[in-house]
Amino acid sequence: RGPDPFTPTGQPSGDTTETRAQGGAYLTTATGTRLPDTDHSLKAGPRGPVLLRDHHLREKITHFDHERIPERVVHARGAAAHGVFRAYGTAANVTKAAFLAKDVETPVFVRFSTVLGSRGSADAVRDTRGFATKFYTSEGIFDLVGNNIPVFFIQDAIKFPDIIHAGKPHPDREIPQAQSAHDTFWDFVSLHTEATHHTLWNMSDRGIPRSYRMMEGFGVHTFRLVAEDGATTLVKFHWKPKAGVHSLVWEEAQIVNGVDPDFHRRDLADAIEAGAYPEWEFGIQILPDTGEQTFEGIDLLDPTKIVPEELAPVQPIGLLTLNANPANFFAETEQVAFHVGHVVPGIDVTDDPLMAGRLFSYLDTQISRLGGPNFDQLPINRTHAPVNDMLRDGMHQTAVHTGVAPYRPNSLDGGCPFQAPGGYVEVPYPVEAAARGRVAPASFDDHFSQPRLFWLSMSPVEQAHIIAAYTFELSKVFEQTIRERQLQVLARIDPYLCEQVALGLGLPVPEGKPEVYVEPSPALSQVGKTWPTKG
Ligand code: HEM
C-alpha cells in the first residue's frame, strides 16, 4: 500500500506497510515479550484459582473483547479488491486531474456492497449495490462513492435517515425486509414519490446482479471538472463492466442466498485469484456548465434523474482492472473510509442538495465508526501524496509530528507552507435567500417521466420480471392502504404495469386520477397526455 506520509519530515519514506504477520519464529505478547505457553492460564496450584497477575491471559482476552467495531450504518455488507486504473488521456481537455492524463497508472481500492443488510447478511438480495473507488493519485485521494443504480431515492439528504429507517429491518422484530413485512419501505416510497425512479430500478433485474464483476457503476450526482485554463464542465461518471451487465433471476437469487450467502464476495475473490481480473471502462457524459445547471430540460442537480446516453454519449476515459485480493478483510475492506469530499485538483462537487448532506455525513460517521479523527492514517486510507495538514493529536494518533508551529504564517518552523490552487474551486453563482420547504425547482417535482422512460425501454421479459417483483414485494405488505397507494404510483408510471400488479395482488385497478402525495408538475402533465395503453 502506499508510502507512509507521516514521517517526521512529512515526506514519503518508501513502503512502510505495517504487517503484524503470523510468521515469526516465536510467539510474543503485543509488546514483543516471548511467551512460553498460550494455552494454560496461570493458577495457584493445578486446580486454581486463576491468578490475576497473568498478564498474557488478561492481554489476550482484553484484546479479543474489543475486536468489534460498529458496522457501517449503511452498506455494512461488502467485499473489496485492489487494482489499477490506467487513463486514456481522453479527459485531459476537460480536467487538469493528473491521474486522468494519458497512460498514467493509479493504484485503486474498490469496495462493493449491499445497502440495507447487516455485515452478516446474504449477498444476492434485491437491493442497490455500492460501488466505491479510492484512487490513490499523486495529487491526493479521489473517492468516487457511487452505486450500481444511476439515480437515488431522495433529492435532499435531510430525508436520508428517513428512507434508511424505512428500509432497514423493522425495529420490533429486526427481521430483514426481504421475505418479511415490507410495510415501512413501501409506506415511504409511496408517500415520497421522488423515490419512484430508484425503486423501479430496484424492482428490475438490476436489483439482483449476477456478480459484482457484471454491474455498471454510477457517480449518480453531477460533478464539475476544471480544466488547466480554468474552464469548467459538468459531468456524470460511469463504470461499464467489460464482462457486460448480467443479473440473476429471482428464483436463482433465492437459491443462491440459501446455498451460498457469500456468493458475490466469493465470486470476486475467486475470479481475481484465478487471474480473471475484472475490468471496467471509466466514462463521462460531458455537459456544458451553464448557470442553470440543466441539460435538455433535465435538472443536473436532481439525483433522481439520469441524462439519457442518447442525448449525451458516455465517453471512455480509462480502464480499471482489479488484480489483487485484500490480505486482511478487517484492515482493508472494513476499515476503508470513502468520502465524497475527497477530490483532487480538476474534479469538484456541485450544489446537488443530496451531495451536500453526503459531504457532511461520511466524515461524521467515520469518526464514530473508526474511533476518532485519525483514520486517514490507517494503511488502507493513507494518501500517496505528501501530507502537510496542520491537523494534530486526537484518538489513535500514530504520526509523530515534529515542529512547534502548526499554523501559518509562522516564524518558527522555517516559514510557512505555501497555499496553492488545489482541489476545491468556487464557481461564482448567484445564491438566493435562505428557504426551507417545498422550494425546489419545478423539475424536481417531476417524479414520473423518467421512470416511465425506463419502463418503456425494457423488453417484454424484463417488464414481466418487474411486474413479478412489485407483485411479490407488495404481497408482503400487510397494510392495505399502502398497497393501494403504491398501485396509484404504478399507474403514474404505466397503466399496464399497474393493472398487472393489481391483478397479481387480487386488488381492483385504481380508477380515475391517481391520488398521490405530490401534485403533478406541468412537465408531468404533458407526459401523462402521451401515455399509451398497453396489453
Ligand atoms: C456509505 C453510496 C447517499 C450516508 C456508502 C457507501 C456507498 C454509498 C457506495 C459504501 C462505502 C463503502 O464501501 O465503504 C451512496 C450514494 C448515494 C448515497 C451513491 C447517493 C447518490 C447518501 C446520503 C447519506 C449517506 C444522502 C447521508 C446523508 C452514508 C453513510 C455511509 C455510506 C453514513 C457509511 C460510511 C462509512 O461508515 O464509512 N454510501 N450514498 N449516503 N453512506 Fe452513502
Overall spatial form: globular
- Tell me the fraction of residues in β-strands, as a range: 5-15%
Instruction: Please provide the ordered H/E string of secondary-structure elements.
Output: HEEEEHHHEEEHHEEEEHEHHHHHH
Query: What do the pLDDT scores average to?
Result: 90
Structural Rg: 26 Å
Question: Helicity level, as a percent range?
Answer: 25-40%
Task: Find the structural class using helix and strand composition.
Answer: alpha+beta
Number of helices: 13
Report the span from N to C terminus: 57 Å
Please tally the β strands and state the result.
Answer: 12
Q: What's the story with the biggest beta sheet?
A: 10 strands, antiparallel
Low-confidence stretches: 1-16, 515-535
What binds here, in terms of ligands, is: protoporphyrin IX containing FE
Cross-link (3'-histidyl-3-tyrosine (His-Tyr)): 339-362
GO molecular function, one term: metal ion binding
Enzyme class: oxidoreductase
Cofactor: heme
Describe this entry's structure for a reader:
- One of its GO terms (cellular component) is cytosol.
- Residues 28-416 form the Catalase core domain.
- Its cofactor is heme.
- Decomposes hydrogen peroxide into water and oxygen; serves to protect cells from the toxic effects of hydrogen peroxide.
- It comes from Herbidospora galbida.
- α3 (183-191) crosses α11 (480-493) and α4 runs parallel beside α9.
- It is built from 13 helices and twelve strands.
- Residues 1-16 and 515-535 have low confidence and may be disordered.
- Strands 1, 2, 3, 4, 5, 6, 7, 8, 11 and 12 form a ten-stranded antiparallel β-sheet that branches. A two-stranded antiparallel sheet has the order 9-10.
- It is an alpha+beta fold and 535 residues long.
- Helix content is 26%, strand content 15%.
- It has helices at residues 55-65, 160-167, 183-191, 196-203, 250-259, 263-273, 329-334, 353-369, 449-456, 460-475, 480-493, 495-505, 522-529, and strands spanning 78-87, 105-114, 129-137, 140-147, 217-218, 223-226, 232-241, 279-288, 294-295, 298-299, 315-324, 347-348.
- β9 (294-295) and β10 (298-299) form a beta hairpin.
- Bound molecules: protoporphyrin IX containing FE.
